[in-house]
Design goal:
four-stranded antiparallel β-sheet; 430 residues; 13 strands; alpha+beta
Length: 430
Amino acid sequence: MKLRGSRFKKAEETVKPDWEALKRWLEKDPAFKADGLEIGSKFEEGNGLVATRNIKKGEALVTLSRKQMICASDPFPELGRKVMEEDPLLKTFPNFSLAMKLLLHKHSPSSSFAPYIKILPTSFNSMFEFSLEEIQELLGTPFFYDVMQAYKNTLKAYCYLFAMFGQNGWNQIGVSPRWFTWQEFSWGISCLMSRQNLIRSSLSLIPFWDLFNHSPGQFTTFFDETEDLLHCSAMRDFPKGQQVFIYYGERTSRDLVLQSGFFLQNNPDDSIKSNMILELSDALKIDILASAGFKHHGSGRFQIELRHQLNEESRGRIATFFRVFALQPSDVEGKAKEEVKKDILTSTSTLPTDEKAIQLATRVFTDISEQYKYSAQELKKNVEGKNVDATDRMMNIWKLKLREKEIITFYLDRASALFSPLSSSSEPEK
């Protein structure tokens, strides 16, 4: 089972983390191994893991057992277990369930996870820490609505849980209204957003391993369900004294800024996604898109991805997508279904759709561009001027806005070129 990670951030705050206590706790489990690594804190990212020797690609880095993780599938404490495990919200949403388990461990004097919880940051750079000024900076962007929806859903969940705990008797379920505040609940959700992962299809917090910072590369962390162990190996060579990184998986800058609280320069996974809908009666178009590898999200909805780094494969997918959506009955009149499918899936389709497809692509790119109601030049001044008064979060927001504006501008300027093999620049300007 492959795993995706998250990371400690530069501006996350901890209260004098006791790394030695964490290490002693981890080493109580004979399965735990962390070969050639030590915890460091003087990095641009903040905390991280450092090579204490020359590490070669493929060498084992960390082994950790399932019992040293906090998972959404874990049972709740005996006090209040029946109420919480039967609650519809906690049963349906594993992120809220895991957040509650983290908070219950945090506020339990006898929790075995205390050494881990005590080194967790007290604050984050993610969306729940945004100030009013930082949220206002999101106005005029498509992701303003992502943040507002996340706030709304999380606040509704908190209000629901607060009322449910009160109705069932706070003392009867082991939760106190003195510590179950909005600040504490949103802290728990921020912890999850920045470092949760899937173990046996269960959202989980993974001590020590979540200290790895991110760098583009390949997955090198796996969970062995037979041994009940997590194994992480080096994705490349790391000389002694250098920070050791892992690859979290494909995450856009929007994901990283809003959920994890950092911006990755020249992120190869950056993209803008847009949904388009077909009539369910358009069986031919739906079939062609499915054959081309596009996922049908239901009700005729398909998604186009405009990647920061455009290559011949992604160019061909974009051309196919718009050719299919631009296809008219007159274009395929008298042709067999398989003949049409084969034709339109080739890199140089002979169907008379390209002119209409270019017009459609231009219209779609224009519509997306108009969602970004700001000037890239103004943002460049903010980012390149390195405003000393700007918070890390504000700087990340400016960089994110600039990145997405550059991506859509790149595609809008080259809409017609997407329907022929690449011959020029294949990524937005940096």
